[in-house]
Write a structure and sequence with these properties.
Length: 305
């Protein structure tokens, strides 16, 4: 099988993992603190990749690759938490595609600038992909400016992640690159959570609120004010496993082919999020979303050609 098809296969698999992870993470963030949830997801993803790296006896990346990986993790870490918060606002079908459009555009343009213009089929595929994402994101009602703004801000961080992880992955172990970048994300989000807890503690001793939750964060049912319980933690770990698997697949796709191809195909993940939201949350699945999914499907063979 030729390298372009191998790269496309990895990128599409990354989209499947990321779309599923975003659905699970966004759904769970509706009742849990987004940064605490993201910290759990990052910790589980880090542990999984480092375990796989050790089991496969993969060599550690060179120092420059390590630094690029850390930069990617810092860029994507806070972005994922902001994105989960945008997804938790109630309209997953709008936040996910907005993030995908902005996050894909920047590295795609960079890839074209550094690697040259792709072929005519790929350009047509990019057009179909952009059209598909736009149609999927087309709001059925009046807009939600705060959600869109949060998703766009998160996308800037994701774009940085794409650019940095491409540099980190050149000639490096996929498992170490993904694991170390996620470790940097974990440290960043953990610091944000601890800083938030510190500000809460400085407000004084605990007092019981009207909803049964004291000011130190413990609810009358044993669930803390962050909304974390055993079920939420399990979902956070699951989202972390799927997210880091998508990252590893994207790194492999970028190693095997052009960056713009890997970015565009993996950025079709909102289609997965929208489908899952329609199936499990009964969000409206209009003819525009259906047209968008068909355009995304048409983009895949053109980009891989």
């Amino acid at each position: 099988m030729s390298a372009p098809f191998i790269s496309a296969g990895f990128a599409i698999s990354a989209a499947l993992c990321w779309g599923s992870s975003d659905f699970v993470g966004g759904y769970t963030a509706r009742r849990a603190n987004a940064f605490v949830l993201t910290t759990i997801a990052h910790a589980s993803g880090t542990a999984l990749m480092i375990l796989l790296a050790l089991l496969s006896h993969a060599p550690l990346p060179a120092w420059p690759n390590l630094m690029w990986g850390m930069a990617a993790g810092l860029s994507g870490g806070a972005a994922l938490a902001i994105f989960y918060r945008a997804l938790s606002s109630g309209k997953m079908g709008l936040a996910a595609p907005v993030s995908a459009v902005v996050a894909a555009t920047i590295p795609t343009l960079f890839g074209i600038f550094t690697e040259g213009m792709p072929g005519h089929y790929k350009i047509a595929g990019f057009a179909f992909a952009a059209t598909g994402i736009y149609l999927v994101s087309r709001p059925d009602e009046h807009g939600h400016p705060e959600e869109v703004t949060s998703a766009a801000l998160a996308a800037i961080g994701f774009a940085g992640y794409f650019l940095f992880i491409k540099q980190a992955g050149e000639g490096s172990s996929v498992f170490w690159t993904a694991g170390l970048s996620r470790f940097a994300s974990f440290v960043l989000t953990l610091m944000i959570v601890l800083a938030g807890r510190g500000r809460s503690a400085s407000k004084g001793p605990a007092s019981t609120d009207s909803d049964g939750t004291d000011s130190n964060g413990t609810g009358s049912d044993g669930t803390d004010s962050d909304g974390m319980d055993a079920r939420t933690i399990v979902f956070g770990v699951l989202a972390g496993f799927m997210d880091i698997s998508g990252s590893a697949l994207f790194i492999r796709a970028s190693q095997a082919g052009r960056m713009d191809v890997a970015v565009v195909l993996s950025s079709l993940y909102p289609a997965i999020t929208v489908v899952l939201a329609g199936i499990f949350l009964h969000e409206r699945f209009t003819r525009w979303k259906l047209a968008g999914l068909l355009a995304a499907l048409a983009a895949v063979p053109l980009i891989a050609a």
